Amino acid sequence: MPLTSYPGVVTRQSYHHGDLRRALLTAAADAIADSGVTALSMRDLARRAGVSHAAPAHHFADKAGLLTALATDGFERLTKALATSRLASNSLLELGVTYLRFALANRATFEVMFRTDLYHADDPELLAARRQAADALYAGMTDLPDAPLAGPSTTGPARPAKEGTAELVSDDVREAGLAAWSMVHGFATLWLSGAFPDSAQEDPVQAARQILGRVRQLGG
Amino acid sequence: MPLTSYPGVVTRQSYHHGDLRRALLTAAADAIADSGVTALSMRDLARRAGVSHAAPAHHFADKAGLLTALATDGFERLTKALATSRLASNSLLELGVTYLRFALANRATFEVMFRTDLYHADDPELLAARRQAADALYAGMTDLPDAPLAGPSTTGPARPAKEGTAELVSDDVREAGLAAWSMVHGFATLWLSGAFPDSAQEDPVQAARQILGRVRQLGG
DNA sequence: CAGGATAACTAGTCAGTGGCAAGATTCGGG
DNA sequence: CCCGAATCTTGCCACTGACTAGTTATCCTG
Fold first, then answer.
1. According to DSSP H, which parts of B90-217 are helical?
2. pLDDT tens digit string along B134-155?
């Protein structure tokens, strides 16, 4: 019986796993969520998936490669969430709330996304995904009610798009966006790390809404 | 010749190192700064210090123990820096700048400080140091020019000090502090991780000053 | 000024990990 | 149908963190 079982894992019947790549990614997110990235082990992920310890190497070049894929997937999902939020509310404050919600709901992935020493930071797919997330973030500013350059969202690929992401927005709006991004990102990070004295009691989304409202041009 | 040399390390003459604990901590900070925490190796630190691979165990229980000490030292130095800043400028905005300057100047230590999965988060010394840093942060708010409860800094040990740190300040000032802390922490984190599109060009302190000025009750 | 307790360090060992190589099994396009 | 390619397995190696036992220096007490 070469196919050893693992608690909580359905013993695989066929020689091929079927969707090992996805299984490893979700297993990694789970493992990180309750044990931290430091304790993450490739071999443990393989055991959870019910495959041999060398199987993951065929889907990810190395450990950093797996985390690169995890981070890339995270940026892509964040982009989608931000785009959805922008369509729904047209508010930069709500965009920040969406950002926080994503961080809270995807704790493990979020932590990996912003720890560049964990993955291959020069991976083209990752860079593209991160770029898109930043674009989705800055794109929300052009639609701000009080944004000077507010206009229809031109997110088509025909856009020139030089190196700096958002050259269409004014410096003022850009600065407000930087402020909001920094604030909500810091809040999420500090909250997740338990740095706030009484983080267990309050509602994070509520608190984030309050402090985001203190950013000029976001207040309402 | 049992005492093997190491590039950049003065070969030790006596059997005892003298100040191995400090040497390991500084070596750790250096190693993390240019290779990341993930690549940090106890044995490598021992080699850098010119001692055997088991020597560090006498000063730190385990790897997490060393990082606990590093984080504790970081919180203590941050506390000192914040206190100094408060005496100098009496401005919450400048307090934030000091926070950022500390993060930039102590990149490796700063990263460790807010990654609780890396060290023993329940260590009493660490908790005390972190608490003091939070106190130093919130203490600055009581001295704010426009703070409702501004008064002489009562940092004596005679203070009751329940679990929540700063019960003396009003909710409004407390919220402004939370906003500023989140913002400057997020800015530092994003900057250090290279998340900003053009982080290499601009001056981080200058940018931080601008966005901190957008927090209501902090602006000029 | 002993001399025993103690702190600091060394050497050896072990399980676990990441990564590599070579072989086995299955799938899929000609 | 069959051969190439993708997937997975077994085996191996260097390295790491942690543990144990033994060695050397220091300190402190009588």
1. 92-105, 107-113, 124-142, 171-192, 204-212
2. 999 887 666 655 443 333 443 3
ipTM of the predicted structure? Answer: 0.86
Q: What confidence tens digit (pLDDT) does each residue in A143-191 have?
A: 655 443 333 443 333 334 344 444 556 778 888 899 999 999 999 999 9
Q: CB of B216 within 8 A of CB of A141?
A: no
Residue A71's Cα: distance from chain center in Å? Answer: 7
Burial A61-81, CB ≥16 within 10 A → b, else e:
eebbbbbbbbbbbbbbbbbeb
Reading the block at residue A42, the tokens are: 């490739």
Residues of A in contact with B194 (CB under 8 A): 116, 121
Residue found by looking up tokens 């750790």 in the block: B28
The fold of A63-212 is Tetracycline Repressor; domain 2 (1.10.357)
Contacts of A74 in chain B (CB under 8 A): none
Residue A108 CA, nucleotide D9 C1', distance (Å): 30
Distance CA B215, CA B193 (A): 24
CATH architecture of A1-59: Orthogonal Bundle (1.10)
Contact indicator for B204, B100 with CB cutoff of 8 Å: yes
- Cβ separation of B37 and A117 shorter than 8 Å? yes
Kindly list the domain boundaries of chain A, sorted by start residue: 1-59, 63-212
Tally the residues of chain A.
220
Cα of B58 vs its chain's centroid, Å: 25
